[in-house]
Amino acid sequence: MGALDTYDVPKHDRRDYWADAVSRIFARLDVAPADGQEIDCRLAWRDVGRARMTFASGSPQSVCRTSAAIASDQAANIILMFQQKGCATLLHRGRSVSLRPGAMVAMDTRSPYRLSFLNRFEQHVLRVPAEALGIQADDAELLTATPLQPSFASRLLMAGFSALEQADPGGDLELPLLDLTRLALRAGMPALKPRSMADRLRQAQGYIHAHIGVSDLCPQKVANEMGVSLRMLQKVFAAAGEQPAAYILDQRLDRVSEILGRPEHASRSIGQIAESFGFHEPSHFSRAFRERFGMSPRDWRKLHLHPKH
């Protein structure tokens, strides 16, 4: 059984060491320790054919599978997690899942996700190639990113972890393990329908409206926070005849135009208002504003603050 931990690693090197470790064991991931916390983690694993069974424990942190990471390693794995200790939150495929001891959830490394551990944790983690399980993208939409119910198959899997922790079981166990994994996923799957494009669009638009004042808001950030790829986000907007970047721009311009017309903001400069909504280049802002409203920001302000009677 392979094992590694951060105990003997200098503190200033632990984050990079741990990020490299989890990327090698699971899939390419970005790691960020919780505020004020030091990385203090351990992994132990054993490969069973194409599957990998891992015992993970560590300090509060977030691990993120981004679109850039997916493009760099293209790992296509199903990761089944059994939470042993601590609490965590998974954001994946636009769904949020709370993990407490006893919870079970699956992730698909072909789609972005963010896993945030809120305190010290322990997990049993099974990584299996999606191809080995015969799970296509449409199936994964249903099987992942939602709490899975305990079943006879999942209990057998947990027993397998306990046995593996004691000794090498020997023999060719890959096929039985794959069969058990398929059964655990299917048996634990709730009655969940794939999210419609309209549902995803409403979620994306809601996030944009709530964060329109964040200067670095962009389509990639929206996709990451929804737990979907940038390409999927573009498809969601395309189904409604829109583009995410254009939608964000329109919403920003609408908010700026609204504030320019309100007397309580008359003392603020146009540049200050524009910059508060992510417009850092005055020329780009003025051009975009004129294209949308047919006049300059200054003329718009005069028209709405001092309308002619």
- Strand line-up of the largest beta sheet: 1-3-4-11-6-9
CATH class of the largest domain: Mainly Beta
Flag low-confidence runs: none
Which second-level CATH architecture of the largest domain applies? Sandwich
Question: What would you call the structural class?
Answer: alpha+beta
Mean pLDDT: 87
Amino-to-carboxy terminus distance: 83 Å
Overall description:
This protein is of the alpha+beta class. It has two domains: 2-188, Jelly Rolls, CATH 2.60.120.10; 197-305, Homeodomain-like (Arc Repressor Mutant, subunit A, Orthogonal Bundle). The chain is 44% helix and 21% strand. The chain contains 13 helices and eleven strands. Strands 1-3-4-11-6-9 form a six-stranded antiparallel β-sheet, sandwiched between helices. It has a five-stranded antiparallel β-sheet with strand order 2-5-10-7-8. A hairpin with a 2-residue loop joins strand 7 and strand 8 (95-99). The radius of gyration is 24 Å and the shape is elongated. The termini are far apart. The model has no long low-confidence stretch (mean pLDDT 87).
